[in-house]
Amino acid sequence: MRIAVNAIFLQKEKLEGYGWFVQEVFSRLTKRFPEHEFVFVFDREFDPSFVFEKNCTAIVVKPAARHVLAFKYWYDISAASIVKKLNIDCWVQPYGFCSLTTKVPQLLMVHDIAFKHFPKQVAWHQQYYYRWGTPKFLQKAEQVLTVSEFSKKDILAHYPIDADKISVAYGAARSNFVPIKWTDKVATKIAYSGGLEYFLFIGGIHPRKNLLQLLKAFSLFKKWQKSNMKLLVAGRLAWQYEDLVEKLKTYKYRNDVVMLNYVSDEELAKITASAYALVYPSLFEGFGLPILEAMQSGTPVICSNVSSMPETASEAALFADPNDPDALAKQMMALYKDETLRNQLIDSGLQRAAEFSWEKTADQVWNAILKTVK
């Protein structure tokens, strides 16, 4: 079997949710199935490290697909033409879009439909493309994958497609997110927080990640506790971040907030394992991978009580309404004042993270590929 994989989000040192998922799954599948050929289709020059095995080849199809018109051309004309010539049996589309012109069976992955719930947080032209294209993509694809039961139900609630066409492939924490030695924690704190304890936020800086409400909660925590605790923010400036940047300039506790921007995966793993707790107040997630990565690192988690996050964290986290900074702050206080609770969350988090693995995810993706080519 010859399998094409849309690889446009495999970018060295710029991997985020989509890219990590593709790397973790297909580095395993290419090794597990040497009798099959995998063709990675990039839209720009790629790093050779993404050619995982001998049965894996990579091609570049231009133009770069980074805006609406380029999406349409790349998926429906340039990439579709190449895939046809290569006699592909299955074309894996991991980013929510697929080709509407190809006759090659496609496996479409839709991580979430956040654009339905937060339309103002997406640029108008992207919103138009999502709304116009998503129902067509879901109909066109032979099979659809998503990352949680919540997302599956959400898709089915908004689009008239057969439930049997959608399956779930959970993500998992990456292997380098593990507890670290006390001395390494101390060194990490010295490097990033002046040697002080810190709450950690991970994610791209845009409205859905809800960092403004976390800043309000952090203010309440500092007011109530009079603590020297820091707040570290690990994530790139993504979109609609200007309001946050302006408010930070006059934020009362600005000196206690450390903006790290994008950090390497190696450093992020150390920062996560050294945190007092991860605070993840996102308004909406299809899965919420940082939750599991913190748990696997031995770091307690406070997260939102909405969308998929209760499904991901189960009973191993503290939950709060993401629109209520007082509720978030109270959970931060509870964790800070109760070391027994914190230790319980560390233990239950490690157990919860162990229930997920990329090997299981790869199994689920492979089963969906087999259904796609039937």
Topology:
Layout: E1 2-6, H1 17-32, E2 37-42, E3 56-60, H2 68-85, E4 90-93, E5 106-109, H3 114-117, H4 124-140, E6 143-146, H5 149-158, E7 166-168, H6 182-193, E8 198-202, H7 211-225, E9 230-234, H8 242-249, E10 257-261, H9 265-274, E11 277-280, H10 289-296, E12 301-304, H11 309-313, E13 318-320, H12 325-337, H13 339-353, H14 358-373
Parallel strand pairs: 1-2, 1-4, 2-3, 4-5, 5-6, 6-7, 8-9, 8-11, 9-10, 11-12, 12-13
Helix pairs in contact: 1-14, 6-9, 7-12, 10-13
Give me the side-by-side strand order of the main sheet: 3-2-1-4-5-6-7
- Order of SSEs: EHEEHEEHHEHEHEHEHEHEHEHEHHH
CATH fold name of the largest domain: Rossmann fold
Instruction: Give the name of the CATH superfamily of the largest domain.
Output: Glycogen Phosphorylase B
Label the structural class: alpha/beta
